[in-house]
Amino acid sequence: MSDISLPAIASPRIRWLRRYGLASFGAAVIVAWALAAISAPWVIRHDPNFVDVAMRLRPPSASNWLGTDALGRDVATRVIYGARVSLTVGLVVVLVGGLFGTLLGAAAAYARGWAEEGLMRLTDLVFCFPPIILAMAIAAALGIGTVNTAIAMLVVWWPKFARLSRSLVISQRSMEYVEAAQSIGFGPAHILLRQIIPNSVGPLVVLVTLDLGNAILVFAGLSFLGLGTVPPTPEWGSMVAEGRELVQQWWVATFPGLAILTVVMGFNFMGDGFRDWLDPHANRR
Amino acid sequence: MPTAAEPLLPAEPLLQVRDLRTWFLTDSGPVRAVDGVSFDVHAGETLGVVGESGSGKSVCAKSIMRLLDEPARIVGGSILFKGRDLAHLDDEGIRSVRGAEIAMVFQDPMTSLNPVLRIARQLIEAMTAHGRFTVAAARRRAIDLLRRMGVASADRTVNSFPHQFSGGMRQRVMLAMGFSNEPSLLIADEPTTALDVTIQAQILDLLRELNRDLGTAVILISHDLGVIANICSRVLVMYAGEVVEEGAPEDLLTDPRHPYTWALLHAAPRIDAQAEDRRLITIEGQPPDPRAWPSGCRFRARCPFAVEKCAEHPELLQVEAGRAARCWVTQEGGALNTPQRVRAVGAAPVDSPPSVPILEVSNLQKHFPLAKETFFARQRVLRAVDGVDLQVMAGETVGLVGESGCGKSTLARLVTRLHEPTNGRIVFAGTDITHASQSAIRPLRRRMQMIFQDPYASLNPRMTIGEILAGPLILHGIAEDAAAARARVAELLDLVGLPRQSVQRFPHEFSGGQRQRVSIARALAVGPDFVVADEPISALDVNIQAQIINLMVDLQERLGLTYLFIAHDLAVVRHVCDRIAVLYLGKIMEVGPAAALFSRPLHPYTRTLISAAPVPDPRVERTRRHVPMKGEPPSALNPPSGCRFRTRCPIAEERCAREEPPLLEAAAGQRVACHFPGRLSDTNARDL
Amino acid sequence: MIRYVISRLVVAVAMVLLATLVIFLIANTVPGDPVLSALGDMAASDPVQVAEFRARWGLDLPLWQQYWLFLERLAHGDLGVSIASRRPVLQDIIDYAPATLELATVAFILSVLVGLPLGVLAAVRRDTVIDHVARAVSLVGVSAPTFWLAFIALAVFYGWLNWAPGPGRLDPVSFPPDRITGLLLIDTALQGDWETFHDAAAHLVLPSIVLAAATLGLITRTTRAAMLEALSQDYVRVAKAKGLRGWLIVVGHALPNAMLPVVTLGGLAYANLLAGAVMTETVFSWPGLGRYTFRSAVAVDFPAIMAITAIVAAIFVLVNFLVDMSYALLDPRVVKK
After folding, report:
1. What is the distance between the alpha carbons of residues C17 and C68, in angstroms, rounded to a whole number?
2. Is C31's CB within 8 Å of A143's CB?
C-alpha cells in the first residue's frame, strides 16, 4: 500500500488563466487599439497631416514620442490614426466577405447537387488568384484608393468562408437532430438558419478572428506597394514604404510595422483562444 | 504451451493484481476510476470482466499494460506478472512486455489500424520490435497468422490497406497482431462490441480456439453477459471502480450474489425464453459520479435489497468456495430472489386481430447513386432497400431486425419519408405518400413520428429541452399560446419520467438515457399514432436499456401507439415485438409472429442469427447447437445473384444462384423467402 | 489510377482557361486605358496616333475576338507583347522568372527544413519549453508583415551590423555567370565559378529568411496540429501496445498521417511564395516576377497583366494538381479499387 501524494488542485482562476490567459491578453491589445483609434481625434493633440519641414526626421523625443517622418509629421500620431484605416478596412472586408461567403456556402451545401458543385468550382477558380495579384489587377483597372482596394480584397476574401461553412454544414446536415427536425416537419429554410448555422458558428468565429489579422496584413501590403490608401492618409503600410530607404532614421518605418505586428498578434491570440474554447478535447489538465 | 521465460508452478498465477488504484489527477480533483481492484489470472485460463460504462474495467485493463497517459496515474497497488511488478517497471521494461508477453486487442477495429500503412507492415513491426524475428521471417509468419485467423487469400491480402478490409477481418488482423509473439496473456477490451452478431460469433469461436490451442490466458472485457458466458471460465463483475462479485459463470449467472449482477441479469432480455410480461425488472438511476464515490456500499442508492448495514463499505468476501461478493446481504449465504413481476393493469395482450393496417409498404426500393470516383468512371449504385413488402397493423409492435448494411435504417427513413423511394409504394393511414411533397406530408407527420439511435446527436445541442419539446407544438399549431405550450411540455416531461425543471437545461447536461427520454417526449409531443424507433436503445447501457424498454411499453399501453421497432439485438426484439421481419442486404428474408419465428425459424439466415446471439447462461451456451455462418457479408453494391444469402448459407444449392426465392407464406402468418424453408432447423424449441 | 490522373488534368486545364477569361473580362470591362500610359498625354490627344496604336495592338476588335486571339497565341506559346517594355511578354517572363523561382524555392526549403521538425517536436513535447518556443516563433512569423521584416532585416543585418550583403542578387562588382537556367546557384555551380556562387548565396540569405518567415509559421502550426491529431488516434495506442519504441511511433505511424494536411498546405504555400514575393522583391531590389507584375499593374500593361495572371493561375493549378497526386500516393484511401 503506497502513500499517495496528490498534486495540489489548481484553483479555478489559475486553470482559467492557463487556458485563456494569452487570448485575454490578445483581446486586451485589440481593445486598446480600437479605443485609441476611435478616440484619436479628440484625445491626440498633434495633427497627423501637419507638415513641418523644419522638424523633419527627428528621432524619438519628449515632444515626438516616436519621432517625425520625412515631412516633419509626428510618427506617433500617424501610427494611431493609421489604426483607423486598417481596422476599418479589415472589419469591413472580413465581415462582409465572411457573411456573404458563409451564407452562400451554407445554402449550397444544404441544397446539394449542382448548386454545391458549382460553388466548389467557383471557389476553386477564385483560389487560383493570390490576393496580391488580383488586388493589383483590380486596382490597376479601377484605380488606386482605399475603397477600390477593399473591393478587390472582398472579391478574393469570400471563398474561404464559403468553403468552411460548406464543410461545417456538411458535417451537420447528416446529424440526427436535423433528421429529427425534418421528421417533425420543419422546412429546409428553418432547419438551415435556425438549427444548422447556430451549431456551426464556432469555427466560423475562429476564422473571422484570425482573418481580421490577415486582412490587415494584406491591406498594409497593398498600401506598401502604393495600391491602397492615397497620400496623405496615414496608413501603416504606406508609412513603412515612406521610411523604406531611411535606414538611419529607422523609426519612420519601424513603428508602423510594429503596430501591424501587435494588432495581428492580438487577433491571432484571440483566435487561438476561441479555438481552444470550442474544442473540449484540446486540453487535458 | 506458453513460451514463458521462467517455468511457472502450476498453482502460481500468471498475473496477480493487488489493490490496484488508478486515478485521474485532474485540476478539479482526483477521479478514482479504479479504486482497489484485486484478482488473479492463471496460465491458460479465460477471465471475463463485466461492467457498464464508468465501472473502471477498461481503465483497469489499460493499467496492466501501462497504456494510460497523464493525468491518469497508477497511484497504488501492484501488478505482478511472472514475478515482476509492472506498475513500477521502467519505460524500457514495460515496452519489452507490451506486445511480447502481454498483448491487447481493442474495441474498434475500424480505427485500430493505421489507414496509410499496409497490413503487412503493421503485422511485421509487431514482431521485429522485440527482436525475435527478422523481417523476412516476420513476413512469412504474418501470412501464417492471417491464415490461422481465417483471412482468405492471406498471401495476397497481407499487402492490402486497412480500408480494404471489413470490420470482422480487421479484428482478425488485430488478433493476429496480438498473438504474433506468442504472449502468455491476451487482454481483449470489448473486442466484438462493434461487430455484427454473426461476425461476433466467429471471432469468439476463434478466441476460444486460440486459447485452447496455444494456451494463452485471456482477459475478456465486455458489457455483454452472453459474450462472457460464451468463453470464460471465471468472471469478475465491476461496479464503481471495484470488483463486486467473482466466480464461475455457471454459478454467477444463475445464482448471483451481488444485487448489481442480479440487476444486470434481469435487465437483459433473453433470446431463449418467452417473457410473460414485456416489462423488464430494472433498477432506477445511474451509476454514481466517479469524482465522488458515495460512502458505504456504492450500489446502495439503486439496490432493491439494501439494508441498514449497507451504510458501511463492504469488503470483497468469500460467499462460497471459489465465489466472492461485496455485499452484506448475501454475505451470510443468502440468495437474491426474483421478485414477483408486477403486472400492470390491463397488461393482458389483446388477442383480437388488429383492424386496419396503419402502414403498408409494397416493393419498396431505395437506390443511392454513389459519387463517381473520376469523371469517366461507371456510376455505382448502392441498393440499400431492394424490394420490401411490409404491413404494420394498428396497435401492434413490428420489429425490423438485421445486421449492418441490411437497409433497416434506410427503410425507417423511407417509411417516414425522410428519403424519397426510388420505386414502390408507401401507404400510411390510407394515404399514398410515396412521392408526395414535404408540405403535403406535413399534416400527416402529426400521426407519424420517429425516435433516433444516437442520444447525443439527435438533440440540437444549442436548444434547451423546453425549446426542443415546444418546437413541434408550435409548428403544428397544437398549442394556442406560450402558456399552453409550457403546460403541454410539462405534461410530456411527466410522461417520460423527467423532472419539470429540465426545461431550462441543455442536452449536454443529461445522460444518454435521459436524452433518449427527451427524444421520446419530442416524438410524442404531436400525439402520433405510429412511432418508428430506429435502434432507440443500442447506444445505452444494459440497465438504462431496460428502463427505456419499460417506458416504451408503458407508453404504448397508455397512448395506444403502434411501433415499428428497429434493432440489431434479437433478444430485445423478441421481448418487445409482436411480429418480426428479418432483413438481409435490402430484402426481407422472413417475417412472422415473434414466438413462432424464434421457436421455429424457417429461413437459414434467421436460424444462424438466432444461433449466433449469445445467451448469458453457460449451460445453455454449451448445449446449444451452434450453426456457424461462414464468410463475410457481400457488398450491397453488387449483391449475389438469385438468393442474396446463398454465399453464406449452409444449405445453399445450385438453384439458389439461379432463382431468387419470393416471399411466400410457409406457415400461419409466417412468410419466408427461401427455396427450402425450414430445412435447416428441423428441431424443437430447445435447440436454440 | 490513370483515370484519376487524367480527370484531374482535364479539370486543371479547364481552370486555367477560365482564369484567363476572368482576368480578360476584368481587364477589358473596367476603366483604365493603356493607350494613355503608353503614348503619354501629348500623343494620346492625337486621334490618328491613337487609332494606329489601337489597331496595332488589336484593341479595336470586339472583345471575344481579342480573347480568341489571346488564346490562339497562347496555344503557340506567344504571350503577347508588353506595351510598356515593347518586348514579348514571354521574354520578359523568362528573364525575370528564375530570380523568383530561386528565391521562393530556397525560402520554401528553409521553412520546411525548420518548420516540420519544429512542429513535430512541439506536438510530441506538448506544453514544454520547445512547444512554447515553436508556437511563439510561428506566431511572430505569421503576424509580421513581410515588407516590414524585410526592412528590419536589411536595416539591422546590412545597414547596422554589416553581416549581410545589400539588396540585389549579386554585388554590383560581380560578374554574373553565363545564363544556362537563370538560377544563379545552379549556373555558377555548373561553371565552377565558386566565388560568384558564394556571392549569390550570400545575397539569398536575408531575403529567403524574410520570405520564409510566414511560411515557416504556417508549416509549424499545421504540422503541430496535425501531429497532435494523429497522436490522439487509436492506432497510435495500438502501436504503443505492440511495444514499439516512442520515436518509431511518432515517425512511422503519426507522421505519415500528419503529412496529408501538411502537404496540402505546403503546396498552397509554395504557390503563394512563387506568386506573391512582391514585397520581398521590392525591398531587396530582386529582379523577379513579383516586381515585374507590380510594374505592369501600375502601367496598366494589359498583355503583361493577362499573361502573368495566366502564368500564376497555371502555377496554382499545377501545384494543386501535384498536391492531389501526392495525396493519392500518401493516402491509400483516395483512389479505391
Report:
1. 11
2. yes
Q: Per the structure block, which three cell numbers stand in for B526?
A: 404531436
The span from the CA of C292 to the CA of C311, in Å, is: 13
Closest chain C C-alpha to B218 CA, distance in angstroms = 16
Q: Report the alpha-carbon distance of residue B489 to residue B467 in Å, rounded.
A: 9
Of C7, C253, C260, the CB nearest to B114: C253
Nearest to B401 by CA among B269, B633, B571, B530: B571
Q: Are A149 and A219 in contact (CB under 8 A)?
A: yes
Task: Select from C237, C242, C331 the Cβ nearest to the Cβ of B126.
Answer: C242
* Tens digits of residue pLDDT in C247-279: 999 999 999 999 888 988 888 888 888 876 888
Q: Measure in Å the smallest separation between the Cα of B125 and chain C Cα atoms.
A: 8
Question: DSSP assignment of B494-559, as one string?
Answer: HHHT--GGGGG--GGGS-HHHHHHHHHHHHHTT--SEEEEESTTTTS-HHHHHHHHHHHHHHHHHH
Backbone angles phi and psi of B530, in degrees to 5 = -125, 125
The mean pLDDT of B390-398, rounded to a whole number, is 92
The amino acid sitting at B7 is P
A124 touches C at CB < 8 Å: yes
Residues 142-171 of A with CB under 8 A from B: none
Buried b (16+ CB within 10 A) or exposed e, A214-247: bbbbbbbbbbbbbbbbeeebbbbbbbbbbbbebe
Residue-wise pLDDT tens digits, B476-498: 988 888 899 999 999 999 999 99
Asked if C238 reaches chain B (Cβ–Cβ under 8 Å), the answer is: yes
Q: Is the peptide bond before B30 cis (omega within 30 degrees of 0)?
A: no
B533 CA to chain C: closest CA distance, Å? Answer: 32
Write down the ipTM of this complex.
Answer: 0.84
Residues near C223 by beta carbon (within 8 Å), at least 6 away in sequence: C115, C116, C118, C119, C120, C123, C258, C262
**What is the four-CA torsion angle of A58, A60, A64, A68, rounded to 10 degrees?**
40
The answer to whether residue C217 scores a pLDDT higher than 70 is: yes
Q: Give the tens place of pLDDT for each residue, B270-327.
A: 887 766 677 888 888 888 888 889 989 999 888 888 888 888 898 888 888 888 999 8
Query: In A, which residues are within 8 Å of C271 by CB distance?
Result: 130
pLDDT band at B5 (very low <50, low <70, confident <90, very high): very low
Q: How far is CA C39 from CA C61, C210, C298, in A?
A: 20, 38, 15
Task: Please tell me the distance from the alpha carbon of residue B301 to that of residue B286, in angstroms, as a whole number.
Answer: 9
Q: Given pLDDT bands bounded at 50, 70 and 90, which one contains residue B352?
A: low
Does residue B46 register a pLDDT over 90? Answer: yes
Query: What confidence score (pLDDT) does residue C329 get?
Result: 81
Q: Is C302 on the interface with A (CB under 8 A)?
A: no
Q: Is the dihedral of CA B505, B507, B509, B514 positive or negative?
A: positive
Residue C90, C-alpha cell as written in the block:
514571354
**A-chain residues near B418 (CB < 8 A):** 179, 182-183
Chains with at least 3 CB pairs less than 8 angstroms from chain A? B, C
The amino acid at residue B49 is: V
Chain B residues within 8 A of C253 when measuring between CB atoms: 114, 117
Are B475 and A182 within 8 A, CB to CB?
Answer: no
Nearest to C230 by CA among C255, C260, C248, C266: C255
Rounded distance between C-alpha atoms, residue A256 and residue A220, angstroms: 10
Q: What are phi and psi of A229, to 5 degrees?
A: -70, 155
| Cα pseudo-dihedral B86, B91, B93, B95, rounded to 10 | 100
- List CB contacts of B119: < 8 A, sequence separation 6 or more: B113, B157, B158, B159, B160, B161, B162, B165, B173
In angstroms, the CA A77 to CA A66 distance is 9
C7 vs B376: CB contact, 8 Å cut-off?
yes
Query: Does A59 score more than 90 pLDDT?
Result: no
Q: Tell me, what's the pLDDT at C242?
A: 93
